[in-house]
Amino acid sequence: MNNPAEFKHPYDTPLSGGLRFLSEVLGWVACAQLAASYSPWLAAAVLLVVMGLPAIFSTPGDKKKVFVATPGPLRALLELALFAVFIFCFWAVWPTWLAAAATAVVLASIVIGIPRLRWLLQGAPTV
């Protein structure tokens, strides 16, 4: 039975959310690994940024809890920019086969998440 207090997103499915989360986890690891090659302190700072930005800046209606309300187009830009950074880090630190697999996960996340991205780019209207 569904709990009426459950959060329901109009354009996010378990598959798109799961792929987006997997993309983020892969990106966190790659970014931290690249930063750690310079300094462990830099790795910690980079992790705070790449994990903190999407957690703090959310669009109302996109997340159950919103800390800093962010317009949908800005949220979409933030996610796409982070994905670009993640892909750069994959290729900078990982062997070709692993970077290619991680890139494929990110690209699949973007493609599967097109309905949500379109909704964000339209200003995240209430459905």
Report on this structure.
The chain is mainly α and 127 residues long. The protein has 5 helices and 2 strands; from the N terminus they run H-H-E-E-H-H-H. It has helices at residues 14-36, 40-56, 72-93, 96-112, 114-121, and strands spanning 57-58, 68-69. The chain has a two-stranded parallel ribbon. Helix 3 packs across helix 5. The mean pLDDT is 92.
- In round numbers, the mean pLDDT is 92
How much β-strand is present in the residues? Answer: under 5%
Identify low-pLDDT runs. none
The largest beta-sheet arranges its strands as 1-2
> Helical stretch count?
5
Outline of the structure:
The chain is built from 5 helices and 2 strands. With 127 residues, it is mainly alpha-helical. 25% of the residues are buried.
Supply database-style keywords.
single chain, 127 residues, mainly alpha, two-stranded parallel sheet, 5 helices, globular
Describe the SSE topology.
Blueprint: H1 14-36, H2 40-56, E1 57-58, E2 68-69, H3 72-93, H4 96-112, H5 114-121
Parallel strand pairs: 1-2
